[in-house]
């Protein structure tokens, strides 16, 4: 089909709330490592797809899926070694006591299961969430995602959802110049727990909020927030859907950068390099509470194909040392972006960890007036130059950078020099 035909058919047959990227949408027909190719064979450098974690169509991942599809794909009511091997390998990346897995098909489903675990364990209902947070597309997850319930078409937080400030050290109430910023943001969690005593089942938090604008919370935030929640019997859920599997470079999981151990961790996106898969890992204690007579069945979750692909992804991360690459290339790229910040006033902030970076555009570095149109315009111009990026953040003025982890220093140079020219 021609591009125009696809667009026409899509407009007629697909719900129009499903949006397209870019003013002139792209037709992408092929992917290879950090590159995507359009219908004319033009290559685009993918700087934003953190799902294709080890590279688009990585041959080892493709082979693992093809081989397992040709042998067997069925539900988990039969014994199959792929699921337990995957569970062993995944748990080996996590600290004690995170030792019990549930497998699902998406990040949304992982967060749904996490909320069920928390509610069953605590026998409570309420949830504390961050402003501008996003956790998924289901009914319940829209209700806990401020990015949605506070956004267009949203109808605010339900009574059982309690929102606290985004711990944003650049634009938020407490900033980088305040050494106690983490503690101060966490005090809001403490107040929320106090006001809703014995009602809070969970604190659900993206370790480094993505839709919130690639935010790196101040040091000490999570440990303090977790302490307050636990002191009143709630559990702490780390949404690692965006940040897990080595992306942040220094650690395999982003929560490790904050020196905490969550009670429940949710995973998706990069876990199977684009194949629909997700996981929830929790403690034996919480898992025991969940084993209350109600069976947990999931038709597709944990099937042999998903687990074989998940294993291949873990193998590639290890064998190609992609966590270390995220650290080295990420630091190099951040340094390049900081040098652009020194030159172009439009860049108000560059922040990140490994290959998880945000570039915030402002019209004025004192008032921090957001430069959303400029950010969108830049992203569209970058695309015309063959570089794929997108914007996010509650003010739509943050360019997010989270490429496949096979990104190289040469790719970083291309990104920085093209952005320099456009700015
Ligand atoms: N949590 C976070 C932090 C996410 O960014 C997303 C997806 N953008 C989800 C959960 C939901 O994942 P999925 O789209 O796979 O359901």
Count structural domains. 2
Q: Are there runs of 5+ residues with pLDDT below 50, and where? A: none
Number of helices: 13
How much of the sequence lies in strands comes to: 15-25%
What is the CATH topology descriptor of the largest domain?
Aspartate Aminotransferase, domain 2
The rounded distance between the terminal residues' Cα atoms is 36 Å
The helicity comes to: 25-40%
Ligand species: 4'-deoxy-4'-aminopyridoxal-5'-phosphate
CATH architecture of the largest domain: 3-Layer(aba) Sandwich
SSE succession: HEEEHHEHEHHEHEHEEEHHHEEHEEEH
Name the CATH class of the largest domain.
Alpha Beta
* CATH-defined superfamily of the largest domain: Type I PLP-dependent aspartate aminotransferase-like (Major domain)
- How would you name the oligomeric state of the polypeptide chains in this document? single chain
Number of β-strand runs: 15
Q: What is the residue-averaged pLDDT?
A: 98
Please outline the major beta sheet.
Answer: 7 strands, mixed
The geometry reads as globular
Class of secondary structure makeup:
alpha/beta
Strand arrangement across the biggest beta sheet: 4-10-9-8-7-5-6
Radius of gyration: 21 Å
């Amino acid at each position: 089909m021609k591009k125009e035909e696809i667009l026409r058919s899509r407009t007629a047959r697909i719900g129009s709330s499903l949006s397209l990227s870019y003013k002139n949408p792209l037709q992408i027909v092929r992917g290879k490592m950090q590159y995507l190719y359009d219908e004319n064979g033009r290559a685009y450098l993918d700087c934003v797809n953190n799902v294709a974690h080890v590279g688009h169509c990585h041959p080892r991942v493709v082979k693992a899926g093809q081989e397992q599809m040709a042998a067997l794909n069925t539900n988990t009511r039969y014994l199959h070694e792929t699921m337990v091997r995957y569970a062993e390998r995944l748990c080996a990346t996590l600290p004690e006591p995170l030792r019990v897995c549930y497998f699902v098909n998406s990040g949304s489903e992982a967060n749904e299961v996490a909320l069920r675990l928390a509610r069953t364990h605590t026998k409570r209902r309420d949830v504390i969430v961050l402003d501008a947070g996003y956790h998924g597309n289901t009914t319940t997850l829209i209700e806990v995602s401020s990015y949605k319930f506070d956004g267009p078409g949203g109808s605010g937080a339900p009574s059982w959802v309690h929102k606290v400030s985004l711990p944003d050290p650049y634009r938020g109430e407490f900033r980088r110049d305040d050494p106690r910023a983490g503690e101060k943001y966490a005090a809001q969690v403490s107040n929320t727990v106090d006001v809703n005593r014995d009602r809070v089942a969970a604190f659900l938090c993206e370790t480094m909020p993505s839709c919130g604008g690639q935010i790196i919370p101040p040091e000490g935030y999570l440990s303090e927030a977790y302490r307050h929640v636990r002191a009143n019997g709630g559990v702490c859920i780390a949404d690692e859907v965006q940040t897990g599997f080595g992306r942040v470079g220094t650690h395999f999981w982003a929560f490790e950068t904050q020196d905490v151990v969550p009670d429940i961790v949710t995973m998706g996106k990069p876990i199977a390099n684009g194949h629909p898969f997700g996981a929830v890992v929790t403690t034996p204690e919480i898992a025991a509470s969940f084993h209350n007579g109600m069976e947990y069945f999931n038709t597709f979750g944990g099937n042999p194909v998903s687990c074989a692909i998940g294993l291949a992804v873990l193998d590639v991360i290890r064998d190609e040392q992609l966590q270390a690459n995220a650290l080295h290339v990420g630091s190099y790229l951040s340094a390049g972006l900081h040098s652009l910040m020194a030159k172009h006033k439009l860049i108000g902030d560059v922040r990140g960890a490994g290959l998880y970076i945000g570039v915030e555009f402002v019209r004025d570095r004192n008032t921090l007036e957001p430069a959303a149109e400029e950010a969108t315009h830049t992203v569209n111009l970058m695309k015309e130059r063959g570089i794929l990026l997108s914007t996010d953040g509650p003010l739509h003025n943050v360019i997010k950078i989270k490429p496949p982890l096979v990104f190289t220093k040469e790719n970083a140079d291309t990104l920085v020099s093209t952005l320099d020219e456009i700015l």
